[in-house]
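Changelog-adjacent note: as of this version, every example in the card shows the full chain rather than a window. The one below runs 388 residues end to end.
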Amino acid sequence: MAENTPSLPTPPWFARPAARHWSCPPPPAKVRDFHAGLPGYAPTPLTELAPLARELGVGRVFVKDESARLGLPAFKALGATWAVHRALAERAAAGGAAATAPATLVTATDGNHGRAVARTARLLGQRARVFVPQGVHPAAVAAIAAEEAEVIEVAGSYDDAVRRAAEAAAGPDAVLVQDTAWPGYERIPGWIVEGYATLCGEIDAQLLAAGAGSPGLVAVPVGVGALAQAVVTHYRSRPAGPAPALLAVEPETAACVLTSLTRGEPVSITTGDTIMAGLNCGTPSSLAWPVLRDGLDAAVAVTDDDGARAAGDLAALGVSAGPCGAASLAGVRAALSGDGADDRRSALGLGPASTVVLLVTEGAAANPRSLSGRGADAPAPDGQTDAC
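Full-length structure tokens:
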């Protein structure tokens, strides 16, 4: 694979190795116990891929495969189930007529988060109203509607859909369950981030069972930064052991976190079209930003070709990955090859014995965009996407 894998001469890149010395409080331990009690829960696979280790010049490479999580083809159900559980418990504790009537869970989505919220609402006997921005594939919209959700299509961007959802959640029976935060709306997004901690806890146990110890690098696809916040919180709150390097990966057309890190403050950018639709976000979450600013070692941006190639290579190795999920491999490839690769490898602290973990956040079924051959408008089975 390596000889056929062109890399960017100089990929868009930010590095801050001092981040490994930053620390923060851990997420609540009870989250994983909650997920373990859900019907259908099982840890998702952590698959070792020796060919990628040889290509990247490291000791071992593991892929956290989120292509089948609680019956959905992406990791988002971890955050949605925990946040809805907390929100409904708080609503019930408040008492009154509203506490006994079904709630309407409102959210905006590019696909995965919205379907996870809709699935959770259906299973709990609640209602769901989901706002989807322009460009979401009809298969993704249909998958959300199949969960008995009301779907409202917005003629605008993901940020526009988020604003519409926030406005619609003003009613007494409505609960906004959004996976990005802004000043004044951070508690429920915080619960969503807590939910993602289960994924990181699984990785620890699986690496231990594989005799791999602590990772030297963890690569995570980034949209608004919620999953990256969970990853940083997990690894920067561990009391002992070597701290891994943490790498954020975004599309070149939607690198809002990389741009914000470079400028030293959160900024909104205008995004373009990308096959990594779930990462097509123009504004970092306000809750995630301080954690990413202080705890990320590096950020890199990759092209659609990089993402498609990585998804195809993972498929050839037996791992189902949509282009958003495959962005982690594309990002590590970009960091460790091309002009300046030695400096980037050094900034990440990687050597020939290092262990690398790639978070593959969605399966191929989660993204209806074509990777090759089918055409951009051909639906994939069970198609959906969304922001990490």
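Structural remarks: The CA atoms of residues 181 and 287 lie 6 Å apart.
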